[in-house]
Task: structure prediction
Amino acid sequence: MTALLEARDLSAGYPVAGGGLLARARVIPVVHDVSLRVEAGRTLGIVGESGCGKSTLGRALLRLIEPSAGRVLWLGQDVTAMPAGALRRRRSDMQIIFQDPVAALDPRMTLGRIVSRPLATFEPGLSRAARRDRAAEALRLVGLGEGFAGRYPHELSGGQAQRVGIARAVVGRPKLIVCDEPVSALDVSIQAQVVNLLMDLQDSMGLALVFISHNLAVVRHISHEVMVMCLGRVVEKAPRDAFYERPLHPYSRALMEAVPEPDPRREKGRIGTALPGELPSALRPPPGCVFASRCPRAAAICRTERPALRDFGGRLAACHFAGEG
Amino acid sequence: MADGLPLDETAPPPGRSTLRLQLDRFARNRLAMAGVVVLAFIVAACFLGPFLFPFTGEDADFDYILAPIDLTSPHPFGTDDYGRDLLVRTLEGGRVSLAIGFLGAFVAGVIGVLYGAIAGYAGGRTDGLMMRFVEILYGFPYVILVILLSLVFGGGNLALFAAIVFTLWLTPAVIVRAQAQSLARREFVEAARAGGMRGSRIVLGHIVPNCLSVVIVYGSLLVPEVILSESFLSFLGIGIKEPQASWGNLIQAGTAAMDSDLRLLLLPGTMLAAVLFCLNFIADGLRDAFDPNDR
Result:
């Protein structure tokens, strides 16, 4: 069976300053050799600390930044080699919502125009009135009724703005949405609302989601499968329940232990949650395991030899010692 | 499709665009509004005033050569040494100066904005090449460039206009390019790309409108710059040529006669100064109203 979206050994990065008029700009690699599959109607959660390449991966999957190596397949068709025109039309199937909901809306446009704009590209046959109706329908779907279409982004709260972002993403009836930290900038009370909205839409539209977050609790709530990234590499990938029951990689364990305990008495009794050691530079990645410099279990081999992703009965982990208890 | 969330009960009052809010804020600035009123009066006087007189600024009246200011005579502000009415000449000169000022600023602004927006959005090598080209043009000495262009265009108003636009589009291009560069990284531009928009449409639909604040503010400073630059060139004798009047060459004629008769300098000089003051007050007000740090 072909997956909806599949990435094979995908790498991506950003050009750094220093490339002159004639010199080729140097590219800092941010994502290395990531492979993943997303099936229709399923959610893949991607977690990791800031700067681990989650967002870059999300954008590379949609070719919003050009991957430097590897391939992205959409229903078995290579997107990485697709010419610009074909890609533009294909974008109706794969949308994105952003971390900063207000920055994701053009401050000069009304919400109605923001939401209906993608239809002008994806369904050029629609009349202006039909586009407006579809935009109103999408706004209603995210809980924003009559009267919002004429408003401007600066008149919205963060949660409302994020729902407009979702309305824009679903107006073209996509099959997959990359959610790049969609709730990190929102109040806790609003987070649940937005996450539940995404899950409702997933159910009703059969959407696949790639849910990028550093919030383990939210990822647990929404995901079917969880992928952990560290310094641009996948260190663990597992079905949700197996992952939360027993993470195999020491980095995943460290992430889980870093979640604060709401009960102050239990919080006090918790053992060392802050990781010692330095986060290695993305410019000079270590030769061995990406986590070796901070890992409590690191041995000599971890600093010299990079562990490959190994299969542990339906789940993957990249650690020399994984599965040893 | 899903039933959706329960609708937000607070259906808000009709939306007000950022531009609307900014213009409202501008309207509350008294000094700037006074500038608008005075400027409107001067513009109206320059374009309509000369029709109130039975003669044009190029008609010589030999009965009144170098007439002094006398509000009861047919030439209330007197005449110059050819017997031409000074008030009418100043108003007619104002037409030329104001037209070149606004038109020049507009054309230079449009070219600069588009160029800068494209360079800033495209980024990378395209941006590098486009901006190096601007820097090369910056390197040309202004006056020499004007003389060269008037040679190419064979002199006349068109050459002057071309020369002014040619030199003044550079700064808006640089300003807008910086703005476009930061806008290009904003998420709504990324969303537009995810929505399948072409680069050209993103530049026109998202980048340029969001540079509007900066452009309006800078444009209002560009108008006096163009007027001054026209006056400067006419003053040097490579701008508007006699007998056609402009504030530049009127002031030049006035300075030549300054020792004997200050009157010839005073009227066009005051008009030019008044317009420049107004435009600067307006620019100030626009900058306060459009300050991007405010929102």
About this structure: Chain A touches chain B through 56 residues (CB under 8 Å).
